[in-house]
Structures are given as C-alpha cells and as structure tokens.
Amino acid sequence: MYGIVFLMYYTTVAQAVASMAPSAVISSLLFNARDMIKFLTWYGRDLKLHTGQLEWVKEQMQSNEDISPSFTRYMLENSQSYDLTETEMAFLAGVFFGAGSDMTSASIFTVLMAAACFPEEQAKVQAELYAVIGRHRAPTFADQGSIPRLQAFISEALRWRPVVSGGLAHRTTKDMIWENYCIPAGTTVLGNHW
Question: pTM, whole model, 2 decimals?
Fold first, then answer.
C-alpha cells in the first residue's frame, strides 16, 4: 500500500529518487560515522591485545629462550618475505589464535558433554587409555593407532554435536525434489547441522 501511494505522489522515478537523495546521503554519513566509532573502539582494544602478544614472542626470541614453533614466531622470522607491517602480523596471528581457540574449546566441551551424557562409553574409553598408556602420562600422537575407542568416541561426539552449523558444501549432480522444492543440478547446498 505504501509503495502505491509513494508512486502516485511522484510522477516519475527520477523525482522520487531526487527527493530522497539529500536525506539518504545524510543518514548514510551519520550511520557510517556511528559504525566507525564502534569500529575504532574495537580496533584499539584488539590492537593492544594482539601487539602485546607479538611483543611477548619477540622478547622471547631476543632472549634466546627455547620457545616452541608458532605462527607468530614464523611470521617474525620471515617478515621480509611477506611485506607485512607489525600491526598486520599482530592482527593476523591474533585472528588465527582466536579462531583456533574458539573451535578447540567448543570441540573439547562437546567431547566432555558426550562423556557426561554417556558414562558407560566414557568408562570404556578410560579403560582403554589405562590399558594402553597407563595412569602416569598423557597420550601422544604416537599412541593414536593404539587407542581406536578414544578416536571413535571423539569422532562420534563431534558428529553428534557438530561445532559449526554449516558443515561441508555439497553440489547436486542432478535436479532434485526435496519437500516440494526443486533443487537444480549444479546447486551448492549447505546443510544446517543444528
């Protein structure tokens, strides 16, 4: 209804657009300024965090401490190859760390939830770990072939409650009908696991 009244009031589309242009530009500028202030607040906070982490790794490297390999260390050692500023390196390493720690912690929580929900299966996994590894050390990648029940438990927990909702992209090879919807051949489909 509003669209019909709007078009009846203006005789041409050009008149309608011309009447909106000044207000659209002003509101767009105000909206962008507000967003920029929010962005600058976020940027400053994250810049301090990420550059602090980068400086910590630099200090460890300069003091000749025996530090383990890391993405940040690699970027600092090979900075001339990538032509990145320290700020860019700090944000790149920080974003990788944040993304990795989110997924890792969510995966660990999912496995712990499965252990709590299925205590009989958790007990079997624990028995396998004690039989293969004992009680005095943590498993390593070298033990992976000897603990298939643990591998299966982790895989099943992550299948049961996927960490991300989207899953993997699939492409249809032929036209498909799903609940009265036609999905044409060649369509990329992302299923929602949740």
Answer: 0.52
